[in-house]
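Weekly structure sync, notes
Attendees: PL, DS, HV (note-taker this week)

Item 1: Potassium transporter TrkG
DS walked through the input record. Source organism listed as Candidatus Methylobacter titanis. Sequence as pasted into the shared doc:
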Amino acid sequence: MSFSNVSHALAQPVRYRVLTRYLARIGLAVIVLRLVPVSVSWLNGDRAFMINQLSTLAVLSAICLPLSRIQAPEDIKDNEVLVIFALSFFLSAASGCIPFIGEGLSDIDAFFEAVSAVTTTGLSTLSQIQQHSAGFLFARSWMQWYGGLGIVVFSIGLLFQDKGLAARRLAMGDIGDSRDILGNTRAHSVKLLTIYCALTVFAISLLLMAGAAPLSAVTHALSGISTGGFSIYDSSLAAIDQWSIQFMIVLCSVLGAVSLPFYYRFVQNGIQELSFNLEIRALLVLSILVIGLLFFCSGENDENTLLRLKHAVILGLSAQTTTGFANVDVGALDNASKLSLIFSMLVGGSIGSTAGGIKILRLLIVLRLLQFFIQRTALPAHAVLERHLNNGKLEFHEIEKALMLILIFIGTVLCSWLLFLIAGYEPLNALFEVVSACSTTGLSTGITRTGLEPELKIVLIVDMLLGRVEFLAFLIFLYPRTWIKVGS
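Item 1 (cont.): predicted structure, written out as tokens:
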């Protein structure tokens, strides 16, 4: 019997009862979370948006409550985790877009906005955003906030499947049996929630003390910590006159782009944790690099040196953390600046954070692999050279997975870019827009707008979902043997 036949015979499809129960429980958690924007709408006297939200939650409760009581096995398999991961974002966006339709958005724009929110992307087709109610503006940022928390919890849960280098670095204590994905994730969820809430409260307090208006402080803090990038202004941070407040908002984004378990380990180990964490140092180096490139690329402009530096700092940190706040017209930037931002968005932030992109750790793995090949050429053929990264051994499956995800990421970008080129969009701007969607950044050259062709809006929606579930879960979702058992 061939290996292929054996793998087909042993392949186990997902159990529908398990999927139904856990998706329903996630739905109940989302219902509780959405009571917060309902309360905000009520306090602001926005009765229409409040009623739209309550009606949606009532229907969702009627569906999720009975389904959450379905009897199903307590254990959960790897492919079931990945399918739940993929479906949870899609279903959350599908239910979240209904109140947006009641706010006057078209069906496709409402779904686009909801997907951009729960995936913490920040791309928006809306204009004159200030004309919408405070409840609507808060709901968008709040969706990004709890979407970011879900991303971190799910991502760390997936890493516990194999106890690789990433899982060892993200562990906050003993991760126990690597097969107990739910147990490990539950053990870490409370700590993650505590850290996430503490960072959020700190961010809101920081912005209020800096002089930001309450609605601006809360919404930008929520979008910043989640690296989502939704702003309550059409021109994003450019509408805020005080540069100090702009910088504080982007500082919140930097806090969100750092792995959440790092804060726990920092409290446990002190300042020495900085010397152990290669991702933090790499994030600093990459941020300085993109800021420097943006500063020098804008050297021919008439702006004074200090203003150029301010723009470079805000935009560079926003791109590297995949947040999407902007204080300049991105579409008006020169080609060199756009290419610098594209590279920055592609890399993204740390694993275990709310940031998107291919993640810094995977870039470091690729660079270490290149270094290994170069070193190997100078050694005897029989010499054994183990692959290590930051004092941790790199297993073959970790390298294989990193390279696979990077390849799929780039392939998705190229396929999506081709569709925009066929539609006649300028090549560099189209590439920028697609990379922004796939890396869940949200910076835009102006292509994403209400008048964008519906089929291209769908392309960006798919890109945002794929970028957030990191492609692997989507591939598992599409794999036929995930759903049916073929053969014996």
